[in-house]
Design brief:
This protein is mostly helical. It has helices at 23-27, 48-58, 64-74, 77-100, 109-124, 129-146, 149-155, 158-169, 173-186, and strands at residues 14-16, 33-35.
């Protein structure tokens, strides 16, 4: 869109959450796409600097080790399994899309039929979903068990983490985000 010059002074860019997308899928999105360093934008509030500012705002010291332990304990097995499954789906979709978007050698009927036949064969030869699932389970388990806060908020849904942390702190998620916002505004 930036190259077509139909609209003067247009610079189209994209800002996206990581969601469940593996790095390889994000890398294939091309120039102009800015990927947040967190699963969802709400994950920004769990980064150590933001949590530290919340602590100062509340008049408390919140050790990074406590935040790490709290987030790690919030990643339940069902959350871990869902994350692995969603990441597997994105990888398979990306592989299938590459195959399906390929072009025939020529645009005649015979070439189209040969291409369609090859697509069927190529789709059948895609990587085994069970192998991909095992790889993703290993990765997300490793991040949960020994990853940094940054790695955890990059990998796991922030809204679910916020809800779990809010319960542990005895407050609703909305109140937690309200406090985070107040802390950021009060302590630039």
């Amino acid at each position: 869109m930036n190259d077509n010059r139909l609209i003067e002074s247009l610079e189209a860019v994209g800002l996206i959450d990581r969601d469940f997308r593996p790095d390889a899928v994000l890398a294939s999105m091309g120039a102009g796409v800015i990927v947040l360093p967190v699963h969802e934008i709400e994950g920004l509030v769990w980064l150590p600097g933001v949590v530290e500012r919340l602590g100062r705002h509340l008049g408390k010291v919140i050790p990074a080790a406590d935040v790490t332990a709290l987030i790690r304990s919030s990643v339940t097995d069902p959350m871990l399994h869902r994350c692995a499954l969603e990441r597997m789906r994105f990888r398979l979709l990306n592989l299938a899309q590459d195959v399906v978007l390929s072009k025939p050698a020529a645009w005649d009927a015979e070439s189209l039929r040969a291409h369609a036949s090859k697509l069927g064969s190529d789709l059948g030869d895609l990587q085994n979903p069970e192998v991909i699932l095992d790889q993703e389970l290993a990765m997300v388990s490793s991040v949960r068990d020994s990853g940094t806060v940054e790695e955890m908020v990059r990998m796991f849904p922030s809204k679910l983490l916020a809800a779990a942390v809010g319960v542990q702190l005895g407050m609703k998620t909305e109140k937690l985000f309200e406090l985070m916002s107040s802390a950021l505004l009060a302590d630039p």
